[in-house]
Amino acid sequence: MSLSEYTKVIDQAVDNQYKISEYRTQADNDESKKIYVKSYKESLEETVRYKVKGDRLIVTTYNKKGKLIEERSFKRLSGDDVKKLDYDYERDVRVDKKRFQN
């Protein structure tokens, strides 16, 4: 996605998500948009590399000077582990909803 396309999407998303009120001004929305666009622009200059080691996926991100700025590792889950993770997530969501509805 080009920077101009991203800017259009962000403009619309921020305006839809954050309505102007006594707690949120248009200047707040404009500042949020600038932060999102700046972050995306920086990410376009980054290099991302992927490496598979056994049951792990390692994602490394380098800035435009080639300096490592982030490394993430993801472990492949078995089918049962995925089901348990989904169950735990849904359980936690239900607990949070009950907590915030009272």
Layout of strands and helices, then pairs:
Blueprint: H1 3-17, H2 26-44, E1 47-53, E2 56-62, E3 68-75, H3 79-101
Antiparallel strand pairs: 1-2, 2-3
Walk me through what this model shows:
The chain is an alpha+beta fold and 102 residues long. Helix content is 56%, strand content 22%. Strand 2 and strand 3 (68-75) form a beta hairpin. The longest helix has 23 residues, at 79-101. It is flat. The mean pLDDT is 93.
Q: How would the global form be characterised?
A: flat
Unreliable spans are: none
Number of strands: 3
What's the gyration radius in Å?
Answer: 20 Å
**Averaged pLDDT, please?**
93
| Sequence of secondary-structure elements | HHEEEH
Portion in strands: 15-25%
Structural class: alpha+beta
Largest sheet: 3 strands, antiparallel
> What count of helical segments does DSSP give?
3
> What is the helix content?
55-70%
Instruction: Kindly report how far apart the N and C termini lie.
Output: 42 Å
Q: Which strand order does the major sheet show?
A: 1-2-3
Short description:
By secondary structure, the protein is an alpha+beta fold. It is 56% helix and 22% strand.
